[in-house]
Amino acid sequence: MAQTTLAAANMQVSHDKQANIGRILQIIEEAADRGVDLLVLPELALQGYIDFALRPGSPQYAAQRRYFISSAEPVPGPATEVIAAAARRHGMHVQVGMAEAAAHGGVVFNSAVLIGPDGVTGSYRKLHNQAEYPFFVPGDGVPVFDLPQVRAASMICYDLVFPEVTRVCALQGAEITLMSTAWPMQGNDPANDYFADAMDLLSRAAAFVNQMWLVISNHCGAGAYSSKVEYYGGSQIISPTGRVVARLDQQEGLACYTADLRAEVMAARTEAFFGLSLLADRRPAQYELLTRDYTTPPGRPAAARPAPARPVTASGGDQR
Questions:
Q1: Which domains does the chain have, with CATH numbers?
Q2: pTM
Q3: What is the mean pLDDT of each run of 10 residues along the chain (320 residues)?
Q4: How many other β-carbons are positioned within 10 Å of the β-carbon of residue 69?
């Protein structure tokens, strides 16, 4: 059996890129000590997440926009090279969330980059980030990556709310989806919080209906850059039958689990649920409506639309 050790990190992140990269390297070393083959780190682990407590139009808001523009990096770039060197030492693959500077100047994506011993394996740009503009623009496409142990896909945070994303991952042959997130709570009680419950419910459902692994890495504790948000933590690993096999609460650390990943996916799709394959038994011709835009019923607010990908200048204005 080909055993693989997965790890999901609970990590406290700040708006200090050098401090964050130092902590990322520490976590990689901790993971190596535990024999980890595939490590997932949070959304924007390199730069820190947005502080939504800041008022649009304020000097602090404009400064935060400049921070993300100036700290964004290309892929591959300096940070991915440093992480790749650590991954090479330990024969590990690492997914890290970061602000990615696009090749066409001024555009910044909220990306999850998968890095291995040979460098960047691939990257994913968050699809659903309507609330994050003008800091980040939405990406396009759901790539999958062939790793030595498993076929993998990536997603970021709010993408989890849209079941189409994980379904597209599975239909492209992904056996595991790696999710980097900055999932908040409404308050500070993880045992009784609507947002926290939502992440757990959606995660187990996504793994179950697609009969694949799901690994989630989150920020934890109070944001070092926000007076408004406390992060849920709850980094976890979910099996292809929807069972949580490893999980953290709000403390920093690693949730780890070792399994024959491919064998458990095959068992889930052929034996676990009455021997039914929930992918093979689909009837795609009956789901045509899924490809149509949502029509807002009368009297209800219109659905948010993603902002177009346009450059954002360091001074805070759009280049149109």
A1: 4-291 (3.60.110.10)
A2: 0.91
A3: 94 96 98 98 97 92 94 97 98 98 87 98 96 94 96 98 97 98 91 94 98 98 80 97 97 97 96 91 92 74 56 42
A4: 22
